[in-house]
Amino acid sequence: MSPTVAQILAPYECKIELVERVASRTVEPSITIIEPNPEWPQRFEEVKERIQKALGALILDIAHTGSTSVPGLPAKDIIDVDLTLKDATDEASYVKPLEQAGFRFLLREPRWHQHRFFVENWPNAYHVNVHVWGPDSPEVARHRIFRDWLLKTPADRELYAKVKHEAAEQTAVAGDSINDYTDRKENTIQEILERAFRDLGYIE
Q: Which of 8, 40, 103, 170 is the most exposed place for a label (fewest CB within 10 A)?
């Protein structure tokens, strides 16, 4: 069963007070935007293989998401992964195996489609974010729709690249965090998603 259109369109407001912090990063990732790296798809495949070996039959899907999944799009040098499991609430079944595979458990957001967040242990040759979701997460669908729209829409791909560069520069000048960088892009992301939803017939 896939998420409904209504679920995909439903906005989510992140409330920091509801985020359950498990651990903190030992090193903050760089907010520097770099030119597209042809190695990014292979890096994802390496991460995917490691996760598959760690979790096996628990996995429903593993998807490359975020800007590094869009060829030709500048991005932070971070591989983002959407990992859909049969039961994201059953932490006993997957947290330890993921940690043994090199991923550090940072936080859980139970009210956001049972989201759990892991990062590649530091230091590493490159950085990885692993987002764990339960079955039929609307957020996974939104990520896929956004990625697929950018793949086929050069104008919005160029717009998003411009906004990413501007947000990164403003964040660096202000000395802000990666969360502030993300907030600076949010309006543009929503504008692009609206065009993608309209193209799919989800809205008029």
A: 170
